[in-house]
Each structure stands twice: as structure tokens, then as C-alpha cells.
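tool_call: predict_structure(chain=1)
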Amino acid sequence: MTDVKNFTPALGHAGLTAEYDRVVAVMTRERRWRGKLLDAIAPAPCDVIIDLGSGTGSQAVLLAARCGDARIFAVDPDPDVQVIAAAKAQDRGVKITLVTAMGGDRIDALPYGAVDKVVTSLVLHQCTLEAKQALLANAYAMLRPGGRLYVADYGVQSTLLMRILFNQVRSLDGYENTRANKDGLIPRFMEAAGFIAVRDRWSLPTPTGSITLWTGEKAGR
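tool_result:
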């Protein structure tokens, strides 16, 4: 497996991890977009859902709280954020399974080919081009035929204001890492990984740029 130390920490620097939740809540209108993402995923009983690059567990905990009978796996390479995620799950009284691994790695603990939904949020803009492609390919491999991928991240910034605001993120997470997002390439990468019916579901302006939700399906039933 890839060395799990080879990742971009939350907010771009390990020293900022403790501030991540507070900053994201204020600077991304987090409650609104996470709520919209939760509604789109619509976790159901018997669902197996993988959160790739789960960070501090915010989305995974929301999924588990919405549907306690769903099996939620939270995958992230950073053990520091996994500690925060575990505490959140305990505080909410929900169960999530934490897996420490890179999103693009083959992860033996996960049920490949039998996953109903994969979600990744605010992750791809932090990744190198190769890591983006590896994560999407891994998501495709995890899903059962007919399974669905949900990607919530920064995309094309359609106004000058949003482009200026997104530069805050680019300065933290790297201008090269964020280039594909800025250039609107995420849907193309999803299609290259094998996903069909790829589409833009919504885009929400925030104080750090617009966040978009893309979805795609794995062919077959």
C-alpha cells in the first residue's frame, strides 16, 4: 500500500488540523452543503457506504445518524483526523468503521464490488493528478453494478468573485493540485474511471469559492 504519510493534511498543514472543523464550518457554509449532500446520498437500511478521504468524520457521522442501519466506512490516511472522527461518532452515539488508508489504495478490509454508494467531499482538490485518478478508479472498483459515486468539491468558479475566493484554498492546498478542479476536469476524470451518467447536481457559492456536487453510476445491475 501507499505510504499513508504521503498526503496533504487538513487545511494544507498538519499544524492546522485542530482548527479544521471550525474553519470549514465558517468558510464553506458547511451545514448547508453537507445537508444537501446528505439528502442526495439518502442513506437507506442495508446500504454499504464508503466515505473516501473522510477527514474528521463530519459526513460519515451525518450518514450514520440519518440511517443507523447503513454500514458506514470512513477512510482517511491521517490518524490525527481519525481520532477526531472517532470522538464525533461517540458523541453522536453512532457507529462508523474507521479505516486508515489512502483513498486510491486497494483496501482489503472493504467489500469491493458490493458497495452501494461512495462519497468523497473536499478531497480531490487536495490531491495530485495521479491521486485524483487513483481515488476515482478505486471508488469504481468498490461499487457494485448500479452503485453510485458522489463527489462534492470545488469546481469551475463561474464568477470573478468566486475565482478570487477560491484562491484562498489554492494557496493552502497547492496551485497545481487544485488546477484540475479549477479547469472543470473532475467530470472527465469520473468518466475516464468508468462512470456513466455523470452530471452536475448543484453548485453552492461559499466564502472560499463554489462547491459542486457531481454524481456518476457504475453500469449494470
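agent: The beta strands are 48-52, 71-76, 97-100, 115-121, 143-154, 196-204, 211-217. Proceeding to next step.
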